[in-house]
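A reminder before we start the practical. When you read a complex entry, don't treat the lines as separate problems. The point of joint prediction is that each chain is placed relative to the others, so the output describes one connected object in space. Small molecules and nucleic acid strands, if listed, are placed in the same frame. In the example below there are two entries. Take a minute to note the order of the lines before looking further.
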Amino acid sequence: MNKDTSRRVAVTGLGIITSIGDSVPAFREGLFSGKCGIEPISLFDTTGFSCHSAGQIKNIDPEGFFSPREIKRNSRCDLLGLIAADEALSDSGLDIAKYTKEKIGVVLGGGAGGMLSWEKYRRALWLKKTRPRPSLLLPTAPCTLTDFVASRYKLTGLRATICTACSSSATSIGYGFDLIRSGDQDIVVTGGSESLSELTFSGFHSLRLMDPEYCRPFDRHRRGLSLGEGAAILILEDYERAEDRNATIYAEVLGYATNSDAVHITSPDAEGMSRVMIQALKNANVNVDQVDYINAHGTATRINDQMETRAIKKVFNGECAGDLTISSTKSMVGHCLGAAGAIEGVATVLALHEQVVPPTIHLEVPDPDCDLDYVPDYSRKKEINFAMSNSFAFGGNNTSVVFARSKV
Amino acid sequence: MIEIAVTGIGVISPLGIGRGAFWEGCRKAKTGIKKITSFDTTSLRSNIAGWIDDFNPRQFMPPKSYRRMGRVSMMAVASSVEALQDSGLDLDNIDKEKVAVIMGTSYGNSSHIEDFYVSLLEDGPRGAHPFLFPETVPNAPASHIAMFHGITGPNNTFCQNELSAENAIMYARNLLSQNLVDVVLVGGADELSAMQYTCYDAVGALNKVRAEEGETIRPEPGSGLILGEGAGILVMERIDVARKRDAKIYGVLKSGVIRGGITDIGHYEIEGEQMARAVFLAIEDAGMDPGEIDQIDISANFTGELDKMEYNQLRQIFRGRNNNLEVTPLKYLMGDFGGAGIIRAAAILLSIYNKLPLPTVNIEALRSEAENFPVWNISPTGKTDTALMTSTTFGGGTSSLIFTKQ
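Here is the predicted structure of the whole assembly.
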């Protein structure tokens, strides 16, 4: 299966909010101009940490967009996700009322979800000051955004939330692709959302994986990742249907793969990374020499960037690796964990749509162990027909998604 | 869609540890719901749950292997050991890249989230314990299964409240029907944690029963949610592959549907329109009609909303059965959790394979106005060839699966 007879999958709507842009046009501008969104954190107190910065979204201004009840009851993560979902659905031009709602699914990737709200509650209990508001606990489950998006737009199709840490929302794009190809669904809302939280911030801090200033992927002096927050939604749609309604087709999803390193819970492994890329290309029916651009996982931890480079070289046999352009969106927005795969999915789709490779910023001193073309500082015009987005997570959960330029 | 065979079962549950003890517990309609003594509940309105007090990971793996695992990971790996052994598969002789691990869990190792955060509050940023954090990701149990057995194929984890395991089953079917893998270890696992329990208690979702230790608890339907914990793994293969290797086949997943009901946060689909739709589609996809369903396994969990909705819809769907509509609300015995769907599926498959019916209650017992506590009917004989498993979660998701004998 998975070839010949099954349906093709188009990306027909995008929505995004990150520290470098709170809409697709603003993000596009930030992405291609190499804007840095990593700045001092104001969301919570970072006293005592060795790092004080992250890709925090400064102006979420949900007033007017949400009802007061929604603002009170939703977590920051869910608010971000709803903003992105609304943009993506309106961008797609779909008149949802016209469609069979049970053929529209919602498959999102989750991260720490409403942890920030739970932390407020837990901290208040610990301080034994006031009795905290129990509704802070309602959005604790990682799947509340999925339910919110479905309920808000009355979508009754398949509903699933994937939680594989940093690869969650990349896999959500993959599952959405499967569901459309098999005919189970006609349209799937995919992507994910993540807000900064003390849990993840102190977690990565405790593992000594954070750069005290800002992350510098593939740089010789990189010292770790920067966290970020944001949400991105991609509307996937049966290609034929999208063509029939003259929708803007940003790109085509060709396939994906997930796998497990089965080696270590936190330490990445080049072998697992290369296998997932090979399998994704195989599932997508794309040859290695056809790939023009890779949106790397590129976290800027010492080991990830080294392993990912090694894995890419292994897949692309040294030779074609010379023509490959690779970049890390995390250099601008930080590592957005559960939303990272979706944000980088949007970046990859925009690269294909605009035929521009986004840069890796803060790459000043090349690392001899990372000797590929990471497109430092400035974006680059290039013919991009096939692109791949990598996401590698804690637990050794790897996902690669392959996209193609839509044929104009 | 192709038929999926289940060729191995592993269960760690409040009804019994290991599939043998679990099945015995099922057949006796034994309750696993009891007073919680694993954490302090004195300040809470409730103190009961379906929980496991005699799980020893050492029975399944050497201590070195579980040194860094949270409770959910330990239970998940333990049930994977049992399920793989049961399946007769020799992992050393198959391509481990063609084996997938797909899990469903509500929150993963949530006690680690609490422990880690409290260590941050008490000891400051430099005191937060680094070993606790990696176990807080919900995919930790699936990753531990992969690491323990060296399984390098697709690995995925679903968190959809009480529909998590059902989501995992549907994704497993998706992988198998595309021929992307040969074998899937599909599972569900959750723990009863102070973190989750106090959250549910605070929002007023729980059954407000306070019991004494050793007291037999007989909650009334509609009186509020009772949480549970446990883990289960099913080994799934395409039926042709399973037959070719002469595997023991417990039963077959014939069809499956997931739909989303529209509702408010923290609530179940009130009318059950999508629940009924999923049941209809699953029965239709299996090429059957409601009259051909021998056993009905439902997700009722003592909440007024869900139990009443299932009552209303099932009375309508199976109206031909008049007052003889027997159903199996297994959560009445083991409590509710995100991975419960796997254990319910395991009960169905053991029933089909052993040709012994699941324990049932008359559906009238689900009505919150029912005055009597559910009376379990344990039948020595009965039709067991086909079963419907319907599941609905708060938040709106709903699924129906049809299992049959091979």
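Discuss with your neighbour: The mean pLDDT of chain A is 94. What might explain this?
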